Amino acid sequence: MRSGNERSSPGIEVDTRRGTAAVRPYGKMDIARAAAFRQDIFEALAGEPRLSDVVIDLQHLVFCDSSGLNALLDARAAVAATGQTLHLAAPRNQFLRLLELTGTTELFSIDPAPPF
Fold it and tell me: How far, in Å, CA of 100 to CA of 39, rounded?
């Protein structure tokens, strides 16, 4: 079983415990960082052994634009095909407003706090 921060990009941590991966972006998520964010999410989804849950811990994300949201929408589509689950955790008001403005709030399961 994996644990600890085995994979990550600058400003993004991935922590795996008990069949769940927590992907934690820090700071701002914009077009300059979205590709690395997407890659880290998809690596967590595709890891071996297969994880049942991937949680995007948003408590340290201070800004997200449409490129970051698109990475999450792509991940949501990917989990639908694999039977895994994708949760968002601890989003800040700016991110919640982004979901509201784009009509995507109902597409995600949102938890008030990350699992670990």
Answer: 25
